[in-house]
Design goal:
Length: 320
């Protein structure tokens, strides 16, 4: 009985994703191609692995047994690749990274440029996804590294099997339309119309916290998820907004006014990986190099933000 390990991976994805459609998305295949691979695997083992009698695809008892072995085979192959990198002069391999838009532009792109020069055989693969879907992808093993944002007022929760490495503290700034005079007080600022972020986003939480401190209900005239959209609305005079400092690097100087109001809070940017060590006890060397390049990119950010805001941006306490 010859079993193609590539087809085992397809079965593994169907098992852990709960269906052909989701497995196809994860494998960058069509559902038809996944079904064909499963059918070929069934011919190889001589057993039905998929129960097709119901609308929802499910595994037969034999399919569940083989999927368990498929998972172990994939884990062994990952371990083998990690161990073999110790015997090569140059690190190599793909690193799948899930990240949110501003981190892609201002952290990953510079890091990728540095890696291309120092470690050309390392291949970062970027997936723009964030929040709980991104965390789920990391837990499932669909990505190797996750860049996250979280409001600094919230505790960092310990997550079993995951490790978090702080990268950067990004201070929030209030932005106003260019022709709007600076509010005389924070209370006056809070009475203005707001371009708000979603409540589960770091900037949305910052606005709600600021409003709570002053006992007011902010007038949210617009709710957007992208900082570019918020800045465009502010520039056109449709409200004021809270954005992270990084977002100001994407707007021409003078298009919006950066308020003098400070102490609005900050968000923390972290790198999250699964707790994974080779059998020799060493951390994954390729992931360590990629995270190091991202950390170096934060130094360039501090210089760029210092020039943009006219003030030096210091490393956060306890960080780089």
């Amino acid at each position: 009985m010859d079993i193609d390990p590539r087809r085992l991976r397809v079965l593994h994805e169907v098992a852990r994703r709960g269906g052909v459609m989701r497995a196809a998305e994860a494998l960058f295949l069509t559902p038809s191609a996944v079904s064909q691979q499963l059918a070929q695997l069934e011919r190889e083992v001589g057993l039905a692995l998929i129960d097709r009698s119901q609308r929802r695809v499910s595994l037969t008892p034999a399919g569940r047994v083989l999927a368990g072995y498929a998972e172990r085979v994939e884990e062994e192959l990952i371990e083998a690749r990690k161990e073999l990198t110790r015997f090569t002069e140059r690190l190599a391999g793909p690193v799948r990274i899930a990240a949110f838009p501003t981190s892609i532009k201002h952290l990953l792109v510079p890091a990728m440029s540095a890696l291309a020069g120092r470690h050309p055989r390392i291949t970062p693969v970027i997936h723009e996804v964030f929040g709980q879907p991104a965390l789920q992808e990391l837990r499932l093993g669909a990505v190797d590294l996750l860049l996250t944002e979280q409001d600094m007022s919230l505790p960092v929760l310990a997550q079993p099997s995951l490790t978090t490495r702080p990268l950067y503290v990004d201070e929030y700034r209030v932005v106003l339309p260019p022709d709007l005079p600076e509010p005389e007080s924070t209370a006056e600022l809070m009475r203005l119309p707001w371009v708000a972020a979603e409540p589960d986003q770091a900037c949305g939480q910052a606005l709600d916290r600021l409003a709570g401190l002053h006992g007011v209900e902010p007038r949210k005239v617009h709710v957007v998820t992208e900082f570019g959209s918020a800045l465009a609305l502010v520039a056109a005079g449709h409200g004021v907004a809270i954005v992270p400092s990084l977002a100001l690097l994407d707007v021409p100087e003078g298009e919006v006014r950066v308020s003098a109001v400070r102490d609005v809070g900050a968000r923390r940017l972290d790198a999250v990986t699964r707790v994974s060590r080779t059998r020799s006890g060493e951390p994954d060397p390729v992931q360590a190099v990629v995270i190091g390049a991202i950390e170096e990119a934060t130094e360039g950010l501090r210089a760029a933000l210092g020039a943009r805001l006219g003030t030096p941006v210091s490393p956060p306490a306890g960080g780089r």
